Amino acid sequence: MTNRFRKKRRLLITLLCVFLALPFIVIGYLAYVFIAYNRLSDNLSLDVRGNVSDPVRTGTKYTVLSFNIGFGAYEPDFSFFMDGGTQSWAWSKDKLLKNMSAIQSFLTASQPDFCLLQEVDEKATRTYKVNERAMLEESFAANGRDTVFAQNWDSPFLFYPLTQPHGKSVSGILTASRFGITSALRRSLPIEDSVIKIVDLDRCYSVSRVPAENGRELVLYNVHMSAYTSDGSIATEQLRLLLDDMTAEYEKGNYVICGGDFNKDLLGDSSQYFGIPGQEYSWAQPVPAELFEGLPLSLVSGTNAPSCRIADAPYNPQQFVLTVDGFITSDNVQVLDVSVIDTGFTYSDHNPTQLTFTLLQ
Question: What SS3 string covers 135-204?
Answer without folding.
Answer: HHHHHHHHCCCEEEEEEEEEEEEECCCCCCCCEEEEEEEEEEECCCCCEEEEEECCCCCCCCHHHHCCCE
